[in-house]
Amino acid sequence: MFSDVTEVEILKCEIEWKLYDFYKHETFMENGQFLTSKQFYNPKCPSIKWELRIYPNNNPEDPRSLISLVQVGLENSDDSLKAQFYICTLDNKGEKVFYWIGNTFSFKNQIESDKYELRRRTMPNSPLIIFCEVEFVPYKIKLENEFVDYSTPKNSFMEIFKQGILTDCVFEINEKINAHKCILANYSIVFQKMFEQKNMKEAKSGKIKIVDTSPECFKIMLEYFYSGEIDKKAFEKYSEDLFAIAHKYEVKQLMELCENYMAANIDAANFSDRCNYAELYSLLKLEKACFNYFSTNRSTFILSKEWNKFKINNKDFAFRLLEETHDFGEKYGRKLI
């Protein structure tokens, strides 16, 4: 007997757009002119980008302000991509006020969706806040990754690190790793302050003992300092540990890369760890990704052993997942965050 299982991977991306003094745009912009948001995309498919457009004054006969979604990025003008999107306005507390649930729409490059009336309820001097989420299945589109598999020869800074040329500090972490204070201080405010304070023993001796991570993980962070890139396999193996060490030394760029990777790679096996990390470090992007994963896979996931274990060990988080997806599901079919 033959057997087969086909699964669909739905990619999602979202943006929150804040506009101040929107009434001035309505006053001074010409009919037909529009405002454009920053482009947004899913890290797994960065070639497919999206942007919102707002028309403060559509035309003299229709004074309403309108909003639409535009796809940018498909290089071949004949290529098309079906997507479903969800737009809402938020109040000052982040609560959703008005919703637009877009039908499935076939986009081509620079093709615009239908325009929707931009309804809002804001106080004077308060910004207009727009939230949008797009979901699509990347048929016939090669998935990419924003994390570079760095197999080519390292740049000159990386060679200096590997060869230990003119190093002025050393990390002791089961082995000795030589480095340069100026490179460390450039990426980490913690290292910068450590070396600036002449009375600290690390500044005097140039020796720093590391006890809360592995040599492999710490070396990956150092290599990031010198090359600006991280091997894809390193993210697969050390993303959570890398985030923890980057958080300790306040390496903001590396923290963001790690969170992006974790948010883009959630499955049943790591769902519990991802949720715990989102709560422990208050990672909003990762938390939203966890909610989206649960929403998309709810019917099968709640029957799994991973969910049974998760709801026992994380009762409050599990209750939030069930409550939010249930409330939205009753009204709109399922939760989009």
TrEMBL record:
Pfam family, one: BTB
Organism superkingdom: Eukaryota
BTB domain sequence ranges: 170-234
PANTHER family noted in UniProt: SPECKLE-TYPE POZ PROTEIN
Protein name: BTB domain-containing protein
Native source species: Meloidogyne enterolobii
